[in-house]
Amino acid sequence: MIEIEQKFILSDGDKDRLARDAQLVNKRAFVDIYYDTADYLLTAKDFWLRDRAGSFELKMPIKIDLNRLTNQYHEVEDEAEIRKILGVEKGENFTSDLEKNGYHPFCRCTTTRTKYKKGDFIIDMDEVDYGDFKYNIGEIELLVSNKNEMKLASEKILSFAQENGLAILPVRGKVIEYLKQKKPEHYQTLVRVGVVKDF
After folding, report:
1. What does the mean pLDDT of the chain come to?
2. Which of 2, 8, 43, 159 has the most CB within a 10 Å radius?
3. Tens of pLDDT along 86-120?
């Protein structure tokens, strides 16, 4: 599947409007640990490798375009496929194999997510705790099965956002916000190579 998503900073009023007439799917907390090499081999290509409660996922961009209004990623959840993409051979276990190949954690955060479904849209409202600061962010997403549906899905998300009174503004995702606040060298590298647009 291809995930088309748009992030928003949500006020309490925005949250109330989005939740109205929406189906509450669940509320849960989870810990994400993001991995990269010391020279940012993954994130400099807009690749995001994370361990969420012991399950790894690699998000890769469909296309890098800083002017795109929505984010478009292909998600790989199969460990064997992730190993193949990263060139990590099977050894002891995936975590130790990653570290032997130079991939180390660079961000750890706990997210409390309230998930809603409203029509075809999935709405995530996240409270992210990094230990010494917190960040609140929302995301509206649609899943599509092929690239031909991406443009229409992006337009649908933006139309839905406008109908619900959300401001269409640049928003930093939770890892980018962490890097900006805590790891400026990493953040500036991503700005320099064009993965992140500074604002």
Report:
1. 92
2. 43
3. 999 999 899 999 999 999 999 999 999 999 999 99
Q: Residue 116: what are its φ and ψ, rounded to 5°?
A: -125, 155
**pTM of structure:** 0.83
Whether domain 2-192 has CATH 2.40.320.10: the reply is yes
Token reading at 50: 């994370």
Residue 184 φ/ψ region, left for φ over 0, alpha for ψ in the -120 to 50 degree band, beta for the rest: alpha
- Spell out the domain ranges in the chain: 2-192
> CA Rg, the chain, in Å?
17
3-state SS class at 189 = helix
Going by C-beta distance under 8 Å and a sequence separation of 6 or more, which residues neighbour residue 151? none
